[in-house]
Amino acid sequence: MQADYAIYSICHIAKADFLQRIRSYYFLIALGVCIFIIYSFVPSLTAGYTMVSLGNYRGFYNSAWIGSMVATCVPFFSLIGFYVVNNAIKRDIDTGVGQIIATTRITRIQYLTGKFTSNFAVLVLILLVIAAMTVVMFLIRGETSHLEPGKLLLPLLILTLPAMFIIAALALFFDSLTRFSRGFLNIAYFFFWVFLVSSSLWSPATDVFGLNTCILDIKNSIAATYPDWNGQYGTGILITDSIGSCKVFTWDGMHWTLWIFLQRIFWMAMAFCLILLASLRFKRFDPSDIKERKQRTIWFLKKKVACIEDDRIPSGIHYRDLPVAQARFSYFALLAAELRLMLKGKTTLWLILSAGLFIASVFTPIGFAYKVIIPLLWFLQVFIQSDLGSREITHRCNEYIFSSAFPLKRQLPATLSAATLVLLTLALPVIVRVLFSGNVYGVYAIVVGALFVPAFAIASGILTGGSKLFEVIFTMMLYAILNGVPYVDFIGAIEESHKLGVAHYLLAITIVLVILAFSGRKRQIRHAY
Amino acid sequence: MEISIKGLSKKYKGGKFGLKNFDLQLKNGILGLIGPNGAGKSTLMRILATISSPTEGIATLDGADITRFPDTVRKILGYLPQDFGIYPNLTAMEFLEYIAAIKGFTGKRMKTRIEALLEELNLTPVRNRPIGTYSGGMKQRIGIAQVLVGDPKLLILDEPTVGLDPEERVRFRNLLTDLSGERIIILSSHIVSDIETIASDIAIIYQGSVLKHNFPQDILKMVENKVFEATITEEAYNGFREQYLMINSMRKNDGWMVRFVLNPGEKRPDFPVLPVKGTLEDAYLYVIASVKNGGRHAS
């Protein structure tokens, strides 16, 4: 009877959660991004880039090669998948359903197993779409018409599926850390993901994603079959125009050994351990274990914030005695109010770090200040920027704010200007120093960046209804800038980005984002209900 | 000032109507909207507050179509949604200054007005504390304050008394009475007594349409000489519920004390009953029941 109840409740928790997720906008975005990744990661031979470089050889586009190329995209799928499923517990907190669940007979492990099952089911669904897309890619890019389903899809089944299993458990574990802020966990996972990818490439013993297994098999195979292979190997977006002139390596597919299966089972067992760990951490929606959203305040602004007693002093004032309100719109007053709304309630640690980096940007060498301090300083503003487009809805203020006079002409431009002003103010020392060094393009790039970031934050917030998309992509972009990737350099710090004229493209993207933000907000105002 | 609503319909995805061919004429005064959940009160209020668009029909403010020219309404609007939130890190002063700036009201005079408004709503002692720390009733009063910031000429208040204790409700009713005059106030509430005491006219809404729109005294006339109280036995209780539209009941030592409304054309019962004055709640329940029963109770 008890077992029946447990299975029944797990199934229903999983089902409800699964349906809720796959009907969300995020899920569709995730599917779209996965399809785009597969399409980009299996490039045509004339694309000018490759995802897997074998030195003087290139892989022949048969079932085995295309299947393995898609399987090596698993880190990207795992990143996207995590952010799709990492709010199972948080949503129950937000909706208040958690309080109801907490008072039922369901145990912590039953509840978490239900949520894990749902996480995994969502990721499996994404994987099924990936598998279908892999077949499509074979039909589009394949150099042979001989489709071998086993060789094409087994890498997804044996390497990617267990990776998704682990991601489902990891998402649940991060989700159970209710004491931490959501934005912090989103960003913490990104860095943990970087660690996971690195460790997967580093050694078979730490190969969570099965990357090392796949790469090692390819290397061994080519070395054994083609003695003139120069031993070079690379993965990632590798720009090359010589793919056509490379010799062709025909791969026969992975050699599935017992060791590979044991390895994958080991990581799945670790996933179970994570669920157990999460169940120890999880306190059944105890409010004292849940971090309230943005309630902490800088210490010197903090007044008595404990429970406030209702005041009962009768007021002698009547409405007719109030000073008359005279309409006098002031853009600067609204800008000041927006700045206050944006900056109020931030932690003391944030203030100290921001101030420290700002001061450091004055005194450190210009190159360091430009390439390292500005990205870090702007990264600290991620939570200020990330809810710009969604805060009205998140805080349920949208109905009365959107019914104020001229919401598109007044409030949205003020939000954009205030956020740009914050970024420009923080970058001011570097702007002045870059200008004096004669780097006019640098100043232009920083100004474009200061416009691009809030425009992106607002547009993504309005279109997705949340802050997660911006937080994740903004973090990835800053991480890429710190690692010298020029294509996403929105502050113009990397010399190659200057040559590529990245700022010009970003300005065009910013204009598109602003148009998207305004049209999205217009729709929100008139058609939300 | 005049609001005219003609043939207004709102059809949601899936074919369900929030409003269906809705007609209403409003002039300065307080309109009380009452109706069961899902009747269309909030849908109507959202359309008038310009955050939702009708699928058919027209609503005008002094002749201007509010769907085509929403800012004609927004400039004079104070809107309190049914389910609203606040920015928890801002203090009451900061929040109201923000709302005032958005609405286009600034300056020292506005600051003085906000301070007086907080005083009026008994929020002065907590005005410099983050709103996130306020109780439910205090947040509701902040919601009311944001409505009044710009001295609106059109007030749309969707369930404004939710979360207010009885004393606060009385104060709120007095405030609305103070406000009435050269304004249109549209007020919805499930607490019929809140509306009964202050509304200049009342609209009973059901399934997206207006059932009755009249002065309170005219609506009360519908149940004139039809409301009674009686004491009945335990055994007769269930049968009694079947036969009469029972408004409420109270258990007593010798059975049940019941308050009920007679069906149309039905004679006074042959057991001892005490005629009592009908209230708006009696009339509302009578009208709704008459529609649900296909006009069985209709007058």
Tags for this entry?
heterodimer; A: about 525 residues; mainly alpha; two-stranded antiparallel ribbon; two-stranded parallel sheet; B: about 300 residues; alpha/beta; six-stranded mixed β-sheet; four-stranded antiparallel β-sheet
Quaternary structure classification: heterodimer
Rg of chain B, rounded, reads 22 Å
Write down the secondary-structure element order of chain B: EEEHEEHEHHHEHEHEEHEHEEEH
Strand content of chain A: under 5%
Q: Mind describing the biggest β-sheet of chain A?
A: 2 strands, antiparallel
Mean of residue pLDDT values of chain A: 87
- Average pLDDT number of chain B: 88
Q: What is the topology, as strand order, of the major beta sheet of chain A?
A: 1-3
What is the percent of helical residues of chain A? 55-70%
Number of strands of chain B: 14
Show the largest interface: A-B, 61 and 69 residues
Summing up helix and strand content along with how strands pair, one would put the structural category of chain A as mainly alpha
The residue fraction in helices of chain B comes out at 25-40%
The SSE string of chain A, one letter per element, is: HHEEHHHHHHHHEEHHHHHHHHHHHH
Straight-line distance between termini of chain B: 33 Å
Sheet with the most strands: spatial strand order of chain B: 6-7-8-3-9-10
Low-confidence stretches of chain B: none
- Number of beta-strand segments of chain A: 4
